[in-house]
TrEMBL record:
It comes from the Bacteria. This is Uncharacterized protein.
Length: 842
């Protein structure tokens, strides 16, 4: 079995929820009459015979907007799936009837995904919730929907149950059967983006770093598995090439057994389709009328497919719908007591367990990573009729590490299943992880995780502290040492919560003088374990966390700040996390800066203004302007804000209820908002697809928005404002810089007025034959300038963007190719420009 070093050791199974599953998978309409029919499977036709109905899956549907006459067709699709699947847990579906995009018959997907659940055949792999609940044998998301599905109200549907749709109509039973298949697990959760041409397209098979179970079986023509393959890292250009190769397959011995050894071909067209590619069978290989055509990407008119087909059913069996679940709670923890150890597992099979195949494999080594003994194999036994198996590991003595795993096999497939489930490790093989515990004196300190608050409002006191503490032996205490304004207060312990991992407590005023606005709370946490050595962990490891106590200032009609007067004696008017007033290299003066680069992984950075603003009655005066540099990950082309494909973004938000609810002053935006930013971001993409481009003063561009535009804020409202940067778990960039903030500052003169003060805008010679010079002088460096020339009809005949910040402008233009006549030359920024006429003669 190899050495201890070569094996993956795990101390306990970890059930993990991913709250952002992939987008629903789409079924497209084919504008052609096919006149084909695939009959329901024998299990449906003979569903009153064979295995007891109580063992079969039960699917409950909540209909939203569904017409009554369409529900019978939906129910037939439900009945077909119920006849084919076995699950002890109810599968809940939310079905909506609504207008969808053109050509889309339906779309569906899992509402949640889980990994490392008890009984899973594979470790560190995402399972969609309906399959995860079947494998775990328990509800994981309560009574919430497991599958979310939507069907178009725009099509001429055939609602009959006989599988005989006439010409021009789409069979609803077939489309529902198809979409439920996606919700049950027929989905790769692949993604594909088109970054700049310098790097080419990037594809991924992972969600938060791990593939879905369907994806673990995808392989290319030569038979190379894509997931977990170092040749096709996720994300990568190499993986994108595979996604568009038209040469991908679902590699499965169970599938091959029903196809005469032919692998199931997946839909991987040369142009990637985000709602369809990889998550379907190939349309050409399984044409209309083929028994396996249900899970292809399109459905034609007069085409009825009322069976998943043998390929899809075996794919489902491969992923775990046919499973031997070894549900083991690894309750054996590190201990300082040498004794015998009983291992228990509940083994439940959809087939028949091979007699004597439930076994415990364990080894004992000297407690280090040095090679240890080979495995000892013990049979695990159960009382007649029981699924609870046990075996006993004899006393290993002190100073020993014990590692183990459990295996079982079923008669029907002759497959061996293990707990923990196997790990994807190399291109060709999987590895067997192991549970482990140590017997002997403990020297391992606790794990202590805590996220400090960057500030607290005085009105929100006391300061509540929450930490997660865990240890191989157990936690004895989590203490808080703290001071207020440098004066120590009595140490106290956080209280253990019901989950036995979370600890919570409050820093209150009762331990000394009242804590008020302007105070500074400093603290650290100390976790001690329950071992004889009383090992401890301090968080932070050095210094302390500092939390200023702040209060909202009196509301004002306006606010202006160029941030250059900020000193230690005059702190900023902002509080938050991930932002500061700084002057990085390449910048002329102080400004608001996010962390550079900003952290990703669903991270939100916030900087809140402590001065609320009273919204002007005159919409023309309720403006908010600032200069900014935005180098954050651009979303997919055309992705609307705030869709999942928008990726990272920056946004200005306001609150009228004391910060409980925040609404956008304007929609969020990213580096795509300005050509200069996008070019800079894309100029330096590394292998991890992060941008290493650095912001500079020359990239500052003006931003203007109005507090009244989005309709959330009305005249007289008192609004708190904040800047927010959101980062998803994928790529990241340099970040955000903000300067010269002006809110409802109606003393600001227009750029046209400023030009008059400094000598105005000149165009010479005038008249000319089309070759002339535009000259201007600005009172301060001005970024984002553009020269626009329009004809007498207002049509733009020339637009020229000026890079960097300008103080003096002298730009030669050649418009000699234009017809003779009067033209208007404007210089300025969007919405604020000075204009001069120029006459072109011939």
């Amino acid at each position: 079995m190899g050495t201890a070093r070569a094996q993956q050791l795990v101390s306990q199974a970890e059930l993990v929820l991913e709250s952002r599953p992939a987008k629903p998978v789409i079924c497209y309409a084919r504008n052609e009459d096919m006149h084909t029919y695939v009959a329901p499977p024998a299990q449906f036709l003979n569903r009153t015979a064979g295995r007891p109905t109580a063992d079969r899956a039960r699917i409950e549907v909540t209909y939203i907007g569904f017409p009554a006459d369409a529900r019978a067709a939906f129910q037939k699709a439900v009945d077909i799936w119920q006849s084919l699947l076995f699950s002890p847990v109810v599968i809940r579906v939310e079905a909506r009837w609504e207008a969808l995009d053109e050509g889309v018959l339906g779309a569906a997907g899992a509402t949640q995904i889980y990994r490392n659940l008890p009984g899973a055949p594979k470790s560190n792999i995402w399972y969609p919730v309906a399959l995860a609940e079947k494998i775990a044998g328990q509800e994981l998301n309560g009574t919430n929907a497991d599958i979310s599905a939507e069907f178009s109200s725009n099509f001429d549907w055939y609602l009959g149950l006989d599988g005989l749709p006439p010409a021009g109509k789409y069979d609803l039973v077939s489309v529902v059967l198809h979409e439920l298949g996606h919700g049950l697990g027929f989905v790769a959760a692949s993604s594909y983006t088109d970054p700049p041409p310098v790097t080419g397209p990037i594809a991924s098979l992972n969600s938060s770093g791990f593939p879905w179970v369907f994806s673990t079986y995808i392989e290319n023509g030569p038979g190379n598995r894509l997931a977990g393959n170092s040749r096709f890292p996720s994300p990568s250009l190499a993986l994108a090439d595979q996604f568009t190769s038209n040469d991908l397959y679902f590699g499965s011995p169970l599938v091959n057994a029903v196809t005469n050894g032919q692998r199931a071909r997946l839909y991987a067209p040369a142009k990637f389709d985000g709602g369809s590619s990889i998550s379907h069978l190939d349309e050409v290989s399984y044409r209309a009328g083929d028994p396996n055509s249900l899970m292809t990407p399109v459905l034609g008119r007069a085409e009825a497919i009322q069976s998943p087909g043998p390929i899809t059913l075996k794919m489902f069996d491969e992923m775990g719908w046919f499973n031997t679940a070894i549900r083991h709670n690894p309750s054996l923890r590190d201990t300082e007591t040498a004794q015998d150890f009983v291992v228990r597992a509940n083994v439940v099979s959809d087939g028949t367990i091979v007699p004597g195949s439930v076994r415990l494999y364990y080894r004992v080594d000297n407690g280090t990573d040095a090679p240890g003994a080979t495995d000892t194999v013990l049979p695990m036994t159960a009382a007649n009729g029981s699924t609870q198996y046990t075996a006993t590991i004899p006393n290993p003595g002190l100073g020993r590490r014990v590692s183990y795993y459990i295996s079982a096999a079923d008669v029907e497939t002759a497959r061996t299943y293990t707990a923990p489930g196997v790990l994807l490790s190399t291109e060709a093989t999987n590895t067997q992880p192991r549970y482990q515990f140590f017997v002997g004196p403990d020297v391992v300190p606790p794990v202590l995780v805590h996220q400090p608050s960057p500030f607290i409002f005085a009105s929100n006191l006391p300061l509540v502290l929450t930490a997660q503490a865990s240890d191989n032996i157990g936690i004895a205490s989590v203490a808080v040492e703290y001071s207020v304004n440098g004066i120590a207060r009595p140490t106290f312990n956080l209280t253990r919560q019901s989950d036995n991992i979370t600890y919570r407590g409050s820093i209150a005023s009762t331990a000394g003088a009242p804590i008020v606005a302007g105070d500074l709370i400093a603290y650290r946490l100390i976790a001690r374990d329950a071992s004889s050595n009383a090992n401890q962990t301090v968080n932070p490891t050095t210094d302390v966390y500092r939390v200023p106590v702040v209060s909202i200032k009196a509301p004002q009609a306006s606010y202006v700040n160029n941030f250059n007067a900020i000193t230690a004696a005059t702190p900023p008017d902002f509080v938050g996390n991930g932002f500061s007033i700084a002057q990085p290299a390449g910048f002329n003066d102080l400004a608001i800066h996010s962390a550079h680069p900003y952290p990703d992984a669903n991270n939100t950075l916030i900087y809140q203004l402590l001065t609320p603003i009273i919204v002007e009655a005159d919409p023309a005066k309720s403006t908010l302007t600032f200069d900014e540099v935005v180098l954050v990950e651009p979303g997919s082309d055309g992705a609307p804000f705030p869709s999942a494909d928008f990726f990272d973004y920056v946004i200005v938000e306001g609150s009228t209820d004391g910060g409980q609810t925040w609404n956008p002053v304007a929609d969020g935006y990213d580096s795509r908002d300005k050509e200069e930013w996008l070019a800079a971001y894309n100029s330096a993409i590394n292998e991890e697809q992060n941008s290493t481009a650095v912001g500079t003063q020359a990239l500052f561009l003006p931003r203007a928005m109005n507090l009244r535009d989005n309709g959330y804020f009305l005249a007289g409202d008192v609004v708190r404002l904040r800047f927010r940067l959101f980062a998803d778990p994928a790529a990241h960039g340099w970040g955000w810089a903000i300067d010269n903030l002006r809110i409802q500052d109606n003393t600001v003169t227009s750029l046209a007025s400023e030009l008059k003060k400094t000598g105005g805008l000149n165009v010479y010679p005038n008249p000319s034959e089309g070759r002339f010079t535009v000259q201007a002088r600005f009172a301060k460096p001005t970024a984002g300038l553009q020269i626009i020339v329009r004809n007498t009809l207002g049509q733009v005949v020339l637009r020229q963007l000026l890079a960097g910040a300008q103080t003096e402008l002298k730009q030669a233009l050649d418009l000699s190719a234009l017809s003779a006549g009067m033209y208007m030359v404007s210089v300025g920024v969007e919405g604020d420009a000075a204009v001069r006429k120029v006459l072109i003669t011939k």
